[in-house]
Amino acid sequence: MSRVLLIGILLSLFFYETTGVSPGGIIVPAYFALFIGEPLRMLSTLGIALVCLLTVKLLSNYMILYGRRRYAVYVLLGLFYKALLSLVLLPNPAFFFSISASIGYLVPGILAQDAERQGALKTLAALAAVTLLTHLAQLALGLL
């Protein structure tokens, strides 16, 4: 697992340095590559990130959110929405354990913050590219 994270981080940094587009943070594509065989988990992570993005946009109308404070709100909302999703899925243990709500605790917030900063489509395209490259590197190096 740590090798895959290292490969994902290196590929994310390389991608960002060559294109100027962040794939949702340097760690997010590595985590997506780890869970590439669990599409529901990936989709729930993207869904939580979208809800975080919309919530921050709404909160920005009533609060002063900028810089680290804004980033902290993204991360906290990601944690909150993951916990909320886990509670909703808890009554059905088979479904809950099959997707475990989302990928990581910080990933949705980090992804949402990048999507706001540079645009959702650009972020998702970069995320898909780096996740695929990381997965292919995993296959090539026999790390699966």
Give the tally of β-strands: 0
> Separation of termini?
9 Å
What is the helix/strand order? Answer: HHHHHHH
* Global mean pLDDT: 89
- Radius of gyration, CA atoms, in whole angstroms: 15 Å
Determine the fraction of residues in helical runs and give it as a percent range: over 70%
Query: What summary fits the major beta sheet?
Result: none
Low-confidence segments, given as residue ranges, are: none
Helix-strand makeup class: mainly alpha
The gross shape turns out to be globular
Report the sheet-strand fraction.
under 5%
- Count of distinct structural domains: 1
- Helical segment tally? 7
Structure description:
The protein has 144 residues and is mainly alpha-helical. It has one domain (2-141). The chain is 76% helix and 0% strand. Helix 1 (2-19) crosses helix 2 (28-34), helix 3 (39-59) packs across helix 4 and helix 4 packs across helix 6.
Secondary-structure blueprint:
Elements: H1 2-19, H2 28-34, H3 39-59, H4 67-89, H5 93-99, H6 107-118, H7 120-141
Helix pairs in contact: 1-2, 1-7, 2-7, 3-4, 3-6, 4-6, 6-7
Descriptive labels:
144 residues; mainly alpha
What is this entry, summarized?
The chain is mainly α.
